[in-house]
Design a protein that fits this description.
Helix content is about 20%, strand content about 35%. It is α/β, with parallel strands linked by helices and about 775 residues long. It has a 15-stranded mixed sheet that branches. The protein has a seven-stranded mixed sheet with strand order 33-32-34-35-44-43-41.
Length: about 775
């Protein structure tokens, strides 16, 4: 037998064996569909855990009930809610038919996280920051899931990476929604999934419904797909711990994804090649787009477009010691599916991740800063030599010693004289490639902009954002140091004129500065600051300066695209007052408030439905029955810079719509909630104990507020107390009665009051607070 024939025989045998192993593993693992995020009346949802599991088994294979942790302190008939829920989950579990799971949702300003199968819990009012949570999860050793990462609820401080916590936070929710629409996988959550992978987290995607109504799993077709040996508690938990999941907007889609015969969710070590096997099946739902997404590139697989069943294999060279691969699919009907990744890593425990190049689009001659995180992902000390190469040339070498799970954030290296074109930076630890990154240096066609910061300049957040965008497009931004004169190699000068406060002495331009600016060969731009007098003075002194009326003009002048940062827009002077949700007061009892608002040039609109709003204020007085769309519109109103004034009332005769209002507040990640109680005061009142006076403000039958996070207390009382007036044992105990508070949400502001204090009954008595704080 010839050597060539022998080699081919060996190769063919290996290929057949590989195929048999893959097929065998695929047949061993079955796909089950369910929901890992839902709520009941044990927090801010509807129904009981028993009802949730009973309902869900008609629509899926497994359900996790994950009520909000800050409700769990209140027992039910003397029993812990977590114990009751876990017992209900065990009772609902029937091997081969349905699996019930229990957990809780930790919430804080940095984000929300589900923790599964634990009686113990951590609440944000005890330890509310991310560091506390990661310390708790490492100690508790429980499985966790990042929930709905994004601007609204937080993205965990840009997925701040903690190596030891990575052992337990194994899931990330990229699909979330309990409306009838299947469109739950958002671009924002998908992008945050990729950010989490780039930070170093080993997480697989899920799509859940976050049910607050009695529609567990049945709200829409979005599902978390799980690859497990069988439908039992142990096998489902094993699949979740090992990241064998996919997020799907289709309830019966089948996906198998393997790398070098290892199933999705696996970590491969020291492989120089990876063979990916993808098996797809969804009758009459053909593929419109299939991509293999990696850390370094996206590969489009066009040969499967239009097919509703196929198996395909692709082989890739692994370019460095840290890479991941996952499958993204969009079906012809628009449904999206995202698989768990397969990681290919160096067996070296020291990793370099979150590599960032700044500026993002450097030009020739610019200095480039490379930032990265360096960490030890093992439980043993790690030491060795970190070498960094640029285009194959050693540019940095240092000895590194790291304790178990130690991480060094934001290490940096400066690069100069980088050649035009594509460049590659590589990280080696103990001679093993642990990471690489590519970036392109463009020809020097950018501009150098000098920014004045010597004259009490009014530099707004929008201007700072423009300067970041300017640098990211490859331009250079420099700042005046001692005098605004004598600068060379500068194309443009940008002066934001002085702000209203500050010292006049520093606001004045010197004769030398005026002369240099008037003789400057490039453009000088003036942006109006808050001190109008000095703006006019600068304009008269600088004869050739170009006046800029808005930051948007600068974007056009420099031909710069705006980044995706949230931006506060100019709002119309309109006050919207909700009247369509059984509100506390109607317009006939708000005549004095309306008269005042019109006197300060506000337009007042009474609305029955909360649609897209363009205005300054939205007033909600003890409303109820808000739809998911209305709640989203309220959040969007705040993101655009609006102010929400929201009030409740006491639980006397069950009068407060606490549950509905708190559902709304939960959507915007509020650090404040309305209590289901009545505030009384035997000392400071105006005729009865429920007519409370606090800080000279009068409240008629108010509820108290509960603070769980960072918020400003506006009105409180040392003499008032909280009682459970409706006798339902649902009032939370408070140490001190708070009646008004506020917090910021994105660009907007939320003001909460335990009762509306601006009706015609109260307006005159509370006039100072209404005019000087609520409506300026």
């Amino acid at each position: 037998m010839s050597f060539k024939r022998f080699s081919f025989t060996i190769f063919l045998a290996f290929f057949i064996l590989t195929l048999l192993v893959t097929v065998g593993f695929a047949e061993e693992l079955k796909i089950f569909y369910g929901n890992l995020h839902s709520h009941t009346s044990f927090s801010d949802g509807k129904g009981t855990p028993e009802e949730a599991y009973s309902y869900a088994e008609k629509y899926g294979d497994f359900l996790a009930v994950t009520d909000h942790c800050y409700f769990l302190k209140i027992p039910v008939d003397g029993q812990k809610k977590t114990v009751i829920t876990q017992q209900a989950a065990r009772n609902a579990t029937e091997p081969g038919k349905f699996v019930g799971l229990q957990g809780f949702e930790w919430t804080a300003g940095s984000g929300h996280i589900n923790v599964f199968e634990t009686i113990d819990f951590i609440s944000r009012d005890e330890k509310g920051d991310l560091k506390d949570f990661y310390e708790w999860i490492v100690k508790s050793k429980k499985l966790a899931q990042f929930n709905h990462p994004g601007m609204t609820f937080g993205n965990f401080q840009n997925f701040w990476f903690v190596p030891e916590a990575d052992k337990y936070v194994n899931l990330v929710e990229i699909g979330n929604g309990n409306s009838t629409s299947n469109d739950t996988i958002s671009e924002e959550m998908y992008s945050n999934f990729i950010l989490a992978l780039n930070r170093g987290w080993h997480v697989s995607p899920t799509a859940n419904q976050d049910n607050h109504k009695q529609n567990w799993i049945g709200a829409n077709d979005s599902r978390t797909g799980v690859l497990a040996k069988s439908l039992t508690y142990d096998d489902i938990m094993d699949a979740l711990w090992n990241r064998r999941t996919f997020a799907s907007e289709d309830k019966n889609f089948k996906l198998y994804f393997f790398g070098n015969n290892a199933v999705m969710g696996s970590i491969l070590y020291d492989s120089t090649k990876v063979t990916l096997n993808i098996k797809y099946e969804d009758k009459n739902d053909p593929v419109e787009k299939l991509s293999i997404v990696t850390q370094s590139k996206i590969f489009e697989v066009n040969e499967v477009v239009g097919k509703d069943s196929f198996e395909i294999t692709k082989t890739f060279d692994v370019s460095d010691g840290y890479e991941w691969y996952f499958v993204y699919i969009r079906q012809k009907d628009g449904n999206e599916i995202v698989s768990a990744p397969i990681w290919v890593e160096s067996s070296e425990p020291v990793k370099a991740n979150y590599v960032r190049i700044g500026p993002e689009k450097p030009r020739y001659g610019q200095q480039v800063i490379v930032n990265f995180d360096l960490y030890n992902q093992s439980e043993s000390d790690a030491s060795g030599e970190l070498n960094i190469y640029l285009n194959g040339n050693l540019i940095s070498s240092e000895k590194v010693n790291l304790k178990p799970y130690e991480i060094i954030y934001d290490k940096s290296i400066s690069l100069n004289n980088i050649p035009i074109g594509n460049n590659k930076i590589e990280f080696y630890f103990n001679n093993k490639n642990i990471q690489s990154s590519y970036f392109e240096v463009l020809e020097d066609s950018g501009v150098t902009v000098l920014i004045d910061r010597l004259h009490e300049n009014d530099i707004s957040e929008n201007l700072k954002k423009f300067l970041r965008d300017l640098e990211n497009e490859g331009n250079q931004v420099t700042y005046s140091e001692t005098v605004l004169a004598g600068y060379e190699n500068v194309n443009t000068v940008l002066i934001s004129t002085p702000k209203l406060d500050g010292l006049s002495f520093f606001k004045d331009l010197t004769p030398e500065e005026v002369e240099w600016l008037n003789e400057f060969k490039g453009d000088v731009y003036l942006i109006r600051g808050s001190d109008d007098e000095y703006f006019e003075m600068y304009k008269s002194l600088l004869k050739n300066a170009i006046v800029i009326e808005s930051i948007d003009e600068l974007y056009k002048i420099f031909n710069i695209n705006k980044s995706s940062e949230a931006e506060k827009k100019s709002l119309s002077k309109t006050v919207f007052i909700d009247q369509g949700h059984s509100n506390d007061y109607y317009k006939d009892k708000l005549t004095l408030l309306e008269k005042y608002l019109r006197s300060i040039d506000y337009k007042v609109e009474y609305i029955n439905k909360i649609e897209k709003l363009d205005g300054s204020y939205l007033v909600i007085m003890n409303g109820k029955g808000y739809t998911d769309e209305e709640i989203k519109n309220i959040a969007d109103f705040l993101k655009m810079g609006g102010t929400l004034i929201i009030t409740s009332k006491s639980d006397y005769q069950n009068g407060g719509n606490t549950e509905d209002l708190n559902t709304l507040l939960d959507y915007i990640n509020s650090p404040v909630r309305f209590n289901d109680d009545q505030v009384i005061d035997e000392i400071n009142n105006y005729g009865a104990n429920f007519k409370v006076i606090a800080n000279n403000i009068r409240f008629y039958s108010a509820c108290s507020l509960i603070l769980y996070g960072k918020a400003d207390i506006l009105i409180s009382s040392d003499t008032a107390k909280s009682i459970d007036s409706d006798g339902k044992n649902d009032a939370e105990t408070v140490d001190k009665v708070i009646l008004a508070a506020s917090f910021n949400f994105v660009n907007g502001k939320v003001i909460l009051l335990g009762k509306a204090i601006f009706s015609d009954y109260d307006f005159t008595l509370n006039e100072d607070f209404i005019k000087n704080y609520l409506f300026k």
